[in-house]
Amino acid sequence: MARKETAADAANPGRLKQIALTYKMTSKVDKKIGLVLAAVGIVTFGVFLAIGFLIGHPIYLGILGLLLAFLATAIVFGRRAERAAFGQMEGQPGAAAAVLDNIGRGWTTTPAVAMNRSQDVVHRAVGKAGIVLVAEGNPNRVKSLLAAEKKKMNRIVADVPVHDVIVGTGEGQVELKKLRTTLLKFPRVLTGPQVTATNDRLRALGDLMSNMPLPKGPMPKGMKLPRGGPKGR
Prior knowledge:
Helix 2 runs antiparallel to helix 3. Strands 1-2-3-4 form a 4-stranded mixed beta sheet, with helices on both faces. It is about 60% helix and about 10% strand. By secondary structure, the chain is of the alpha+beta class.
């Protein structure tokens, strides 16, 4: 029992420190966060306290109002902190991969499965919705990356649906803050074992490509690469 209390006491300072750090980071972007939180808490408590006086139970309604004021403040703080975090990440390389990495249970993400010289990149997420290819970068350039990766997925796992998403703020694109919601809205068509099997097949493909033996030594004289050979990206 004493050990559990000690662990809880040790965790509390860590949570408080994390909340303080989150508030500090949020306040750099959202300058009115302090005023908004104070207003939400005071108004919520004041409304319930006023109702308590009207019905003759100010103590009970005051306690209830205090609890609800704390809850409302926490909810508003969480949403504004999330908005501020996405605002800072927007347009940063790898931002989509960070969101995919925190999408939740049931999803397996692989960052940067395709990339070009301009640093446009495609990430892959596998879940019960199938395979989702998420691209970030120049909209015109990433379309060719997506098309090539989608073609490869259809060839390897033809029985699994493949979706593609371009992260951005333009027409037909998905904003970074809506990326997780977008993926979770895709219809679930695979079972757990099917998701595992899909991941195994994709992982085996990656291992096969990484372990493919390469010829050693100089290229023989007069030997030329075939015209359909691999080209540098």
